[in-house]
Amino acid sequence: MVNLTINGQKLQVSDGQTILQAAQSAGITIPTLCYHKDLSPYGGCRLCVVAVEGARLPVASCVTPAGEGMVVKTETPNIVESRKAILSLILSTYHDSGYPVNRPEDNELIRWARFYGLDPAAEQSKTPKFAIDSDPNPFLWVDMNKCILCGRCVRACTEIQGRYVWGLSERGMQSRVVAGFDQNLLEARCESCGACVACCPTGALDSKLSIGKGKAEKVITTTCTYCGVGCQIDLNIKNDRIIEVTSNKNNGVNGIRMCVKGRYGYDFVHHPDRLLRPKVRRYLLEGGPKSREGSSWDWVETDWHTAIQVSADRIRTTRDTTGPDSIGILTSAKCTNEENYLMNKLARQVIGTHNIDHCARL
After folding, report:
1. Domain boundaries, the chain
2. Which pTM value belongs to this model?
3. Which CATH number applies to 216-274: 3.40.630.30, 2.40.50.100, 1.10.3720.10, 2.20.25.90?
4. pLDDT tens-digit map of 340-352
């Protein structure tokens, strides 16, 4: 353990933790832009600088390990002036064209600028350097006028998704973030997972499907329906419709990690052809003979209890009349391991057949 003092508060933290992590563990806020708890530390924006007693210059708290006996101050007059200067310089290359964004409250640059008394509209660049919505990717909105070169998208693509799509190009004032060899995202082998969107602190990367739909009225945490991993997702709801799916960094299963289907494949929920109740052939409900003639072959909405009872009766009748091997069961990758195990029990012990397979293998 390491003993140190931050803003007069004596702390004991694990050896290897940074000053920033030590401060966060004690509820002390240090502003950051390039730092993200799920990514490797970068130390690029310098907004997190703090004063360490005995150090000649302020140090970046996100990359400086906490040392035994350290005395740290996070909000001295010099540190505050330094942060204002840093934010002013960053804003000088930032341009907001004013289009409606999905979650304006998530713009960390604007939030910290206002916290330190700066006027973002007055400080920002007056003209855009890049095209807005500059990439044809159907899911990712790209506006590099808002990019501050924090590198979070680069690290997210590398460390979370392992795709290495984003990278830094050029040097000095010409530096910019590009996909692949300055290609569009799909040509650079982007999987549209949205990890870079989840990590972007300024809205330079956003969800294209939700741009202009306004702010959500409520957020509901639920489980993704696409596979058996059980990823937790946040449904952003407005007027009883999903306008965006976002990841929650506090979720234990997946954190900010999601696939393209989980993050962007939600339009089926409101599709007019979606089944909302089970349907059964009319002749099965009425108990008549099987016939494709007339209305007896029509689908009829019913309740779940009736639908399950009809299915169970038909499976039992088929097993008893033509044998258990006349029945086959197909399980799903959208089920959990436990649910697939129960299907194995149903097939082998209840029905008495080994005819069970998995949709992901077919």
Report:
1. 2-75, 216-274, 279-358
2. 0.87
3. 2.20.25.90
4. 999 999 999 999 9
